[in-house]
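Ticket #4471: structure export looks truncated?
Reporter: QA, pipeline team
Priority: medium

Steps to reproduce: submit the single chain below to the structure queue and open the exported record.
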Amino acid sequence: MALHLKTLLTLFTLSWCATFLFGCKQEKTSVQQLQSSITPVIASDLMPYQQRPIEDEVFYFVLPDRFSNGDTMNDKGANEIPISFGGFDPSNEKYFHGGDLTGLTNKLPYLEQLGITSIWLTPILRNQAVQGDIAGYHGYWVLDFTEIDPHLGSNDDLKALIDAAHKRNIKIFFDIITNHTADVIKYKECHGQDGSGWSESGEACPYISLAEVAQGKGYRTVIQKGNEQLKTPAWLNNPKHYHNQGDSTFSGENSLNGDFFGLDDLNTESQAVVEGMIDIYKHIISEFKPDGFRIDTVKHVNIEFWQQFIPALADHAETQGIENFFMFGEVYSGNPIELSKFTTEGTLPSVLDFGLQSVLYQTLIEQKPTALFSTLFAQDGLYKNANQLLNFTGNHDMGRFAYLLAKQEKFSHQEISRRLKLASAMTFFLRGVPVIYYGDEQGFIGTGDNHNARQDMMPSKVATHNAQKLLQTTASTAQDNFDISHPLFTYFSKLAALYHQHKTLRVGEQKVILTQDKAGLLVLRKQDKRDDYLIAFNTAIAEQSALLTLDKQYQLIHPSEQALIETVGEQSRISLPGLSFALYRAVK
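Actual output as written to the record:
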C-alpha cells in the first residue's frame, strides 16, 4: 500500500511538472503524458451563423464541378442554350466532370465533420461551355449574371444548398467577377472582318496603350453573327462598356485595361459599368442570400471602382438581413504593401494573404530562415485588420502545397505530409482565418497548377490524376475520396477543433517572440483580455531548442510528439521536434 501511494505521488509530480513551462527537473521525461484526445467541434456547436464574425470561420474552398455528382441529368448543361451546352468529358482534366450543387448539398455532413463553418464556391453563374480546347467548368467565363450554370444545377438547387448549409450553421460564399466577362468581343485586326479568324502570325492581340488610343490608334470591335445578345443583363452586350485595347501582359497600365487571357475586359472606370455591376450583385444578394463574396482579380480593376462597389453591396446586404456579410478579394501579390491598399484605400474588408503563402513556401519548401515571418508580420499594421486576412497554403491556380513540395523532388511522401501538416497548422494559428483547399484533407497532391490541381473527390476518370499516389492512403483519385478516417482528415478536424475552442487564438493580438536566421523555431504570443497563449513552430527537420524570457507560467494544451520545456536559471528552454508545433496557455 505504501509503494502504491509513493507511485501515485510520483506520477502526480511528473504530470504537474510536464504541464508548466517553469519548475521541476523531470519535465523532459514526462511532458508526453499531457497529450489527450481533442473533442471534434462542428458548426452547429458554434454561435449562429447570422451573428458569427469572420474570425470564427474555417473555410473550405471547392470547385463544385470536381466535388460530387448529385444529378447526372445536368452533366452536359442545358441544350436549349447551345453556347452553354456540352464540354462534358470526365477523362479530360480541362473539361466538365459532372460535379454539381446537389452533390455538394449531399456532402454537407462530410464537411460538417471536418469542422468547416464556411464553404467558398468557385463562380457558379452561367458560362460559355467551351472555348478552344478548354471548358468553363471553373466558372470564370460568365455570360449570364442572373442564373446558375446548367452544368451545376439550377437557381433552385443553389437555394437548396444554402438552406441546407444554414440549417447546419454553415455559411456559403460566392466567388464573383467584376473585371471581365466571357470572350465574345473580337477585334477585326486580329480575328478578321467577321470575328471568326485569328491573326496570320497566330499571336495574341497586342495591347494598345491609352496614349496610342488618344492618338487615334485602336482595335475595331466585331461580334460574330448570332452572338450579339449572348450576355445577360443586356447592357453587357454593348462593346462601349469594355476597354477593347488588346491582351494584358499583367504589368503596368495593361494590368488594368488589357484583356485577361482574351476575356472581355470591362471598362470599370465608366460610371455606367460601376452602377451596372452593383445592380448585378445586389440582385444576387437579394435572390440567394449568400453570406459573402470572394472577389476575383481585384488588382486588375481600378481602385475607384471598389470605393463605390464595396460600400454599396455591404449596405444592400444589411437591408436584406445579412448581418455579417463579408467580402474578401484576390490580389495576386505577395507584397503586403500592394495587398493592404485594397483593404484601406480600396475599402475591401479583407484579402487572401498571398504574403503569408509566399513565406510558407519560402520557409517550408525552400527551407529559408523563420526570420521571414518577422518581416511579414511587421507589416500587419498596413491592413485594415490582419486577423481577418484569409490564410491558405495553395489553391486552384498555383497548385496544392503538396505539389509545390513534391516538384522539388527532394522530399519523401512522409516528409511532404509533415511539411503540409505544419504549413496547415500555421494557417490556423498564425493571425488570420484558415482556408482548406478541397482534397488536401484526402492527401491529394496534383501534377501541376491550374487544371492539374483540380482533381475529383468523386471517382475520377483522368488517367494522369489516377496514376498519382496520394498522401497517407492506399486509395487513388479513381476511387471516391470522402474518407473521414483519412489521417489528414482527422488532422484537419483537430486543427479546426483547437481553433474553435480557444477564442484568443483567433482574435488575440499577435507578437513575435522568437525567430531564427535559419530553418528552425518561430515562437509567437497571442493575447487579449481573456487569455494569453504561446504558439511555437519548428520548420527544421531536426529538433530545435532556444531560450525564452517569459513573465508567466504557460500550460501545454496541445503538444507535438515531444514538446519539451525546461527551466534554465530565470529562463525557459523550449525544444520542439522537427516539423512540429505546440500551443501553450498562460496559467491564471
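Status: closed, not a bug. The export was complete when the record was re-opened. Leaving a note from the reviewer for reference: Residues 2-34+509-586 form a domain with the Immunoglobulin-like fold (CATH 2.60.40.1180).
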